[in-house]
């Protein structure tokens, strides 16, 4: 078993051997840490952050990614990727994430070849092995490397090392695209994505940190951190939430008493 310093050094050694990299960069905890370490090891001229905008990627998250890349002095390439046009994606079967990642990594591969970068990297870590992640198959097919995973780093490790580096994302909530809010088999549309984006933006502006709004037809199921459940249920905030969510197009607004947790939409599929 390696300690944190050993894992960190293994990551740096791995990146040094790669010489130049394209990082699939969302601005989340993992990809931000990976981008920063890659920049420190290889220099800004040998690192490219590639960010794909799409209806499933909230504008707030995109703006944060741009700010982070600029603060690190890393070149960021922004491309458009409309997953709703990918065959099979909008139908939202259990391969949805595979279709999305294949599209993203194909774009990364093409840009890496065009601009002369040797490797494509993503921010997968050891915690991702414990959940259903069909996107990992796309990464393997397109020879995408996952240095954090290969170095044995888990999410807790990445947060600790991010804090040491002074990265503002060290305590950021886990990010997942808006398509993960839908039960498998429920069609994903631009209108439904906009509904969820509006509702989650409302919760963020009310200072909730860990939250998700899950789509169940006419019903919005809200997940917040267990410590925030009582705050959300109290007046006048409860009425404000109901009004906003109904204005977004939902008929019913439900609060999940289990609270926020990653991968909750996989619970019914296992």
How would you sum up this structure, described in words?
The protein is α/β, with parallel strands linked by helices. The chain has two domains: 4-164, HUPs (Rossmann fold, 3-Layer(aba) Sandwich); 178-269, GMP Synthetase, Chain A, domain 3. Helices cover 43% and strands 13% of the residues. It is built from ten helices and seven strands. The chain has helices spanning 4-18, 29-42, 59-72, 96-115, 135-141, 147-150, 155-164, 190-205, 229-233, 237-247; strands at 21-24, 47-53, 75-80, 119-121, 211-216, 219-224, 252-255. The protein has a four-stranded parallel β-sheet with strand order 3-2-1-4, sandwiched between helices. The relative contact order is 0.13.
What's the CATH superfamily of the largest domain, by name?
HUPs
Task: Tell me the major beta sheet.
Answer: 4 strands, parallel
- From the spread of the alpha carbons, the general shape counts as globular
| CATH class call of the largest domain | Alpha Beta
Q: Order of strands across the widest beta sheet?
A: 3-2-1-4
Reported by name, the CATH topology of the largest domain is Rossmann fold
Percent range of helical residues: 40-55%
Overall radius of gyration: 19 Å
User: Which residue ranges are poorly predicted, with pLDDT under 50 across at least 5 consecutive positions?
Assistant: none
What's the helix count? 10
Please, what is the average pLDDT?
93
Number of domains in the coordinates?
2
Q: Secondary-structure element order, as H and E?
A: HEHEHEHEHHHHEEHHE
What is the number of E strands? 7
Strand content: 5-15%
> What CATH architecture label of the largest domain applies?
3-Layer(aba) Sandwich
| First-to-last CA distance | 31 Å
């Amino acid at each position: 078993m390696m300690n944190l310093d050993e894992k960190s050094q293994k990551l740096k050694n791995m990146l040094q051997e790669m010489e130049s990299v394209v990082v699939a960069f969302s601005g989340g905890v993992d990809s931000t840490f990976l981008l920063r370490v890659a920049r420190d090891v290889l220099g800004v001229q040998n690192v490219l952050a590639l960010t794909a905008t799409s209806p499933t990627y909230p504008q707030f998250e995109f703006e944060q990614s741009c700010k982070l890349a600029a603060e690190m002095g890393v070149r960021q390439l922004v491309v458009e990727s409309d997953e709703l046009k990918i065959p099979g994606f909008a139908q939202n079967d259990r391969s949805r994430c595979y279709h999305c990642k294949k599209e993203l990594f194909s774009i990364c591969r093409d840009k890496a070849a065009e601009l002369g970068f040797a490797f494509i990297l993503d921010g997968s870590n050891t915690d991702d092995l414990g959940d259903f992640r069909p996107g990992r198959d796309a990464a393997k097919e397109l020879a995408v490397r996952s240095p954090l995973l290969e170095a044995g780093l888990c999410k807790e490790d990445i947060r600790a090392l991010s804090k040491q580096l002074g990265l503002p994302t060290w305590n950021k909530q886990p990010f997942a695209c808006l398509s993960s809010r839908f039960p498998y088999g429920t069609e994903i549309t631009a209108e439904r994505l906009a509904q969820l984006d509006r509702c989650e933006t409302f919760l963020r502006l009310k200072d909730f940190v860990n939250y998700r709004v899950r789509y169940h037809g006419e019903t919005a199921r809200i997940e917040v951190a267990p410590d925030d459940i009582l705050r959300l249920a109290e007046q006048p905030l409860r009425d404000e939430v109901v009004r906003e969510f109904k204005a977004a197009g939902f008929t019913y607004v439900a609060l999940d008493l289990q609270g926020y947790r990653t991968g909750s939409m996989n619970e019914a599929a296992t």
